[in-house]
Amino acid sequence: MAQQIVIVGAGFAGLMAALSAARLRAEKNVSPEELKITVVAPEPALIVRPRLYERNPASMVAPLGELFLAAEINFHAGNVDTIVIDNGTVGISGAGGNSESLPYDRLVLAAGSHGSQPPIPGLAEFGHSVTDRDSAVMLDKHLHALAEQPASPARDTVVVGGGGFTGIEVATEIPDRLSEILGLDAAVRVVIVERGPVVAPDMGSEPRPYIEARLHDLGVETMLGSGIAQLDEGGVTLENGERIETQTVIWSGGMRASPLTEQIPAERDNLGRILVDPDLRVPGFPQIFATGDTAKAATDDEGNFSLMSCQHARRLGAFAGHNAIADLLGEPTLAYDQPSYVVCLDLGPDTAIFTRGWSPRSVELTGADAKKAKMDINTVWIYPPAAEREAAFQNAFDARTVDF
C-alpha cells in the first residue's frame, strides 16, 4: 500500500520540504506511486512575502504547478482546518465549501504565520498591513486612491506602527512610492511609532546608527517610547496622548504562528511556535514534523533559535522534508542546524544594510552594494528553481550539505 507525506503549506518552508523530500525519494529509487508527496495549500503558488512592502504587491507570487509536476509532487487545493492525530488524517476545506479528509503517514506542518494584531481600538477597521498578499494589495489600492482626494496633512501622512525590520522597510519605501502616486509636490510625511526606546531593536549597536541616519536622510520621523493607543477614521492617538492626523496606518507589530499549531498538544512559545526536537519532530508525536514559522528550533549550540524569516524557513523546510521521508524509508534523520545568520535590510530606493551574526551583528555592506545584495535576494535567491526535474533537485536545498 502506498505511503504518503502530507505537507501543509506552499510557502518557503513547505516548498523546500516538498523538493527535499522528492529529491531523497528519487535518490533512493522509490517511485512516486509507492511514496506520495502531497502539498496542501489554497493555490499552487509561492507568495513572496518578503517583498510585499514593495510596489505592485499583487505580482509578488511565483507559480508552482509546473515545478510540482516536474518533481512528481502532488498538489491538493484547499485549506487544512483540522489535524486528527488519532487516525493520521487532515481535514481540508475547498474553495467550493466542500470538505474532505486526507490520510498521512508523515505530516509536515509548514502552515506559516500571520500578522499579530493586538486589540487596539480601531486597528481592525482602519489599519493596514503587508503581512499577507491580500492585505498588501488592499494597502496598494488605498495608497492610489489617496490621489483622488485633495491635499491635506491627513492624506499625505503615513504612520507605521512598529520599528522592527518590516516597519523600517515599509517606512523607507513609502516616501518615494507615495510621491509617485500623489506627485512630487506632495508634502509626504512618514512617522514610525515605536513603543521601545530605539528603532531596529534587534539590530544592535553597530548597525543602528547607519539605519537612524538613513531614516533622517529620507525624512522619516520616529516617535519612540509610546505606542499607538487607538485609531479612527482621521488619525491615531498615541499612548502619551499625542495625536497624528492620518488616513494611512500600516501595522507591523510582529507575527504569530498558524493556529493549526494549537491542535497539537505540544509545548509552544509566546509566538505559538512548537518547540521541536533537533530533527524537527514534534515531541511525543513521531509522525509529525513542524517547520518554518510553526517551529522553534535551535540553530546552533550557542543558544540561538530559528526566526520567522524566509532565510530560516527555507532551510528548516529542507530538513523537515528530508527527515520525514528518511523516517519512512528507515534512514537516519538529521539534526537541523543553521549557524550562519545574515540580515539584509532594505532602506529605500538605493540603499540597504547587510549584517552578519546574531549578537553582536557586524556590518558587511551598506549603501549601493548592500542594495544590490538585497535585490539579488529579493528577485533571485528566494524564488523557486526552474520547473525542470534535474534543475529543481540541483537547486533545492540539500539538508546534508547546504549552509545558508
Commentary on this structure:
This protein is α/β, with parallel strands linked by helices. Helix content is 28%, strand content 27%. Strands 5-2-1-9-22-21 form a 6-stranded mixed sheet. Strands 11-18-12-13-14 form a 5-stranded parallel sheet. Strands 6-7-8 form a 3-stranded antiparallel sheet, with no helix packed on it. The longest helix has 19 residues. The relative contact order is 0.16.
Quick recap:
Helices cover about 30% and strands about 25% of the residues.
Relative strand content: 25-35%
Radius of gyration: 22 Å
Mean pLDDT: 94
**Class derived from helix and strand content:** alpha/beta
**Largest sheet, spatial ordering of strands:** 5-2-1-9-22-21
Mind describing the biggest β-sheet?
6 strands, mixed
Give the helix tally.
10
Q: Count all strands and give the number.
A: 26
What best-fitting shape do the alpha-carbon axes yield?
globular
Low-confidence stretches: none
Ends distance: 37 Å
Helix content: 25-40%
Features:
single chain, 404 residues, alpha/beta, six-stranded mixed beta sheet, five-stranded parallel beta sheet, 10 helices
Ordered list of secondary-structure elements with their pairings:
Elements: E1 3-8, H1 12-27, E2 35-41, E3 45-47, E4 61-63, H2 65-70, E5 74-77, E6 79-84, E7 89-93, E8 99-103, E9 106-109, E10 113-115, H3 123-126, E11 127-128, H4 133-145, H5 153-156, E12 157-161, H6 165-182, E13 189-194, H7 208-218, E14 220-224, E15 228-232, E16 235-238, E17 243-245, E18 248-251, E19 255-257, E20 274-275, E21 281-282, E22 285-290, E23 295-296, H8 310-328, E24 342-346, E25 352-356, E26 362-366, H9 367-381, H10 389-395
Parallel strand pairs: 1-2, 1-9, 2-5, 9-22, 11-18, 12-13, 12-18, 13-14, 20-23
Antiparallel strand pairs: 3-4, 6-7, 7-8, 10-19, 15-16, 16-17, 21-22, 24-25, 25-26
Helix pairs in contact: 1-8
